[in-house]
Design brief:
Blueprint (H helix, E strand, L loop, with lengths): L1 H5 L1 H21 L1 H5 L1 H34 L13 H6 L26 H13 L4 H18 L1 H7 L14 H20 L4 H18 L5 H19 L6 H16 L1
């Protein structure tokens, strides 16, 4: 409700995202199906109430804008992205301008949420318990990534009209999902220590990703990323009693300071 009053874009994006999560949950969570009609009824009712409250404020403004400016018939699709460029943007020290020209959309999604949370999310994806929550997070993340790659789906998230600036405004959803997975990965590390086989899998995955994004990064930034990855992996893989959490925290704060 607060989003409908404060920001139309955010409200629209969150509403679409909630619908997607609900549909995915219906596939993977059996307990939701037990009381499906009541849950769907409450969900639809809450959405309709929010839309009505939103309309009371924004509909008069919309009609005034249409009357003054007219309705634009332009339909511009943002150029598709490369998957490796999305992976590149998950790492620190990679910046785009916040605004791009409407006819020259060159901005890529800003999905960075921290190198440490990224590594912890890898821990969860590789070694976490295989349950319905994990499947929902993976499928939801894939939906967002596919939306980045396919212009027709991407434009849907923007209300079927290309934004004037700040493309891929829904990219925060991938960061949100990544942070959830990183929390679960951290809980896994608190309960378990990685064995040699798990450490090898994690290192191989990180090496493959760094190799894939190397063409998009300059040598200095790539080297800095490699140094941070090595430091994080050393702390994660060789957990010293009581102090490993503090070391991760200090290193993560240092990363964020350098990235600002």
């Amino acid at each position: 409700l607060v989003l409908y009053f404060s920001n139309f874009y955010m409200a629209f994006i969150v509403c679409v995202f909630i619908v997607i999560i609900l549909l995915i949950s219906l596939i993977f969570k059996q307990n939701i199906k037990v009381d499906l009609k009541r849950k769907l009824g409450l969900f639809i009712l809450s959405v309709m109430i929010s839309i009505l409250m939103f309309g009371a404020i924004w509909l008069p403004l919309m009609y005034e804008l249409i009357e003054f400016y007219g309705v634009s018939e332009e339909y511009i699709l943002i150029e598709p992205l490369n998957l490796f460029k999305i992976l590149f943007k998950l790492f620190p020290f990679n910046f785009d301008t916040f605004f791009s020209m409407k006819y020259m959309n060159s901005m890529s999604p800003y999905v960075y949420f921290g190198l440490l949370p990224l590594l912890l999310s890898f821990v969860y994806l590789l070694f976490g318990e295989k349950n319905s929550d994990k499947k929902i997070l993976i499928v939801a993340s894939l939906v967002v990534v596919i939306s980045f790659l396919i212009p027709e789906i991407n434009i849907m998230w923007h209300g079927f009209e290309a934004p004037t600036g700040f493309d891929y405004r829904y990219s925060f959803l991938l960061s949100f999902l990544g942070l959830i997975m990183s929390c679960k990965g951290y809980k896994y590390l608190c309960r378990n220590s990685l064995n040699k086989k798990e450490i090898s899998k994690l290192i191989i995955l990180v090496i493959l990703i760094l190799a894939a994004i190397s063409k998009y990064s300059n040598k200095v930034m790539l080297l800095v990323n490699i140094v941070f990855v090595l430091l994080y992996l050393q702390i994660i893989c060789i957990k010293s009693l009581y102090t490993w959490k503090y070391k991760l925290t200090i290193l993560f704060v240092f990363e964020l300071i350098l990235n600002t």
